[in-house]
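Incident review: delayed structure delivery

Summary: a single-chain prediction request sat in the queue longer than the usual turnaround. Root cause was a stuck worker, restarted by the on-call engineer. No data loss occurred. The affected request and its eventual output are reproduced below so the record is complete for anyone auditing the incident later.

Affected input:
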Amino acid sequence: MKRVLFSGRAKHDYLSDALTLLSGWTRDGEEIRRTLVLDDTQHAALTERVKVVADALRLRPEISRRADRTQIRVGHGDSEPLTEGEVLLAARIEDAVRAVTQP
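Output delivered after worker restart:
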């Protein structure tokens, strides 16, 4: 297996490219966000699935519920750059969304 090291600029471009593949996610500085319309059961199931993945990646996304909307924030929102792990978490969250919303 060959490892590739990314310079700061190349890493940023790589993460930006990866984010374009995550439909529904928006970037705000150094965090990414997603809002979903889910019922209470779907929200609970999604939250549990995200917790398992986030624990494995040692990350802490913010998941909140307002009315029928589930809001997810991944990243720091401050000067800390978005990491590969956080983009990977967003991709895994998308997998979890599909799992809880498909009949």
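Verification: The chain has one domain: 26-101.
Action items: add queue-age alerting; document worker restart procedure.
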